[in-house]
Amino acid sequence: MMGFINLHKPKGFSSHDCVARVRRILNTKKVGHGGTLDPLATGVLPIAVGRATRLLQFLPTKKAYRAKVRFGLTTTTDDLEGEIITQEKCPDLSVEIISNFIPNFIGNIEQIPPIYSAIKQNGKKLYELARQGKEVDIPSRKVEIFDIKILSWQSGDYPELDLYIICGAGTYIRAIARDLGQKVSTGATLAKLERTLSCNLEIKNSINLELLEEQKNNNQLTLIPPDLLLQNLPIINLNDQESWRWQQGQKLSYQGEDNNNFYRTYNNQQQFMGISEIKQGQEGLIIQPKVVVTTTDE
Q1: Is 147 one of the catalytic residues?
Q2: Secondary structure of residue 249 in the 3-state scheme
């Protein structure tokens, strides 16, 4: 059993909870996920099964979210799960004021992650240090945000803004909500989050845990072929002799131009075998197996 599942993560489940549940449903230990979602978030959670877990590092990193930001409120976690730090009504805040600041968040920007996050500092996760009450100096890091669109605005004492955000890996939507609140001087926190795209998987094609279990019990479960999510990588085709050597871990000479590090690799029968890496050898470029997921004798 090898491939991916486009799982719709329910609210209240951690990404680890979902992996544990999938392991029980499929009766296999070799299950992993791509791109962590906070427990309060819902939406696309890519699940890898079998040797596909070794391919997670090569999946495309672009993600898309629908986010609800609530103004007039700040919390310890930058979402509604944390304790309230400040709370002050802001009925005069308008979407016109906020829209002036949206361009500041698009492009390559510096972002300070929330203290309640899984980022490690000196070998410990930030949320572990936060729970111990330790003061932590969190360095900013570069993230890429491709686009932010305003979807709707709900006025009131604690107005709410719905956003559609397309971003790269490592972006914290909670931090965008927090920083947007700082820009308009009211404070803000993330009230709701749904991921609609991750690793080329769209929410419209996702399945929930109940449907996954039903399909497995009825022998109707079909995993997504592993190479289907790797369209971001170029292709190398090998003949029969080259394929055999490649699967044995041997290096092959490469005559093309190398504009990429990693390549989807196929044999003569167009069977996906894994990922190749192009490197500089003593006598020119070489093809080297990076991850082998399928061999010809299987």
Answers
A1: no
A2: coil
CA distances for 29 relative to 115, 200, 218, 219, 231, angstroms? 31, 24, 21, 19, 27
Give the homologous superfamily in CATH for domain 63-198: Pseudouridine synthase (3.30.2350.10)
Whose tokens are 């997921």? That residue is: 293
Domain spanning 3-60+200-227, CATH architecture:
2-Layer Sandwich (3.30)
Catalytic residue among 38, 78, 179, 227: 38
pLDDT band at 131; cut points 50, 70, 90: low
Q: Backbone dihedral region of 165: left (phi > 0), alpha (psi from -120 to 50 degrees) or beta?
A: beta
Residue written as tokens 């167009």? 270
Terminal-residue alpha carbon distance, the chain: 12
The DSSP output letter for 78 is S
151 to 160, 161, 227: CA distances (angstroms) = 11, 8, 34
Residue 3's contacts (CB-CB under 8 Å, 6 or more residues apart) are 48, 49, 50, 52, 223, 224, 225, 226
pLDDT digits (tens, 9 = 90+) for 212-241: 999 999 999 999 999 999 999 999 999 999
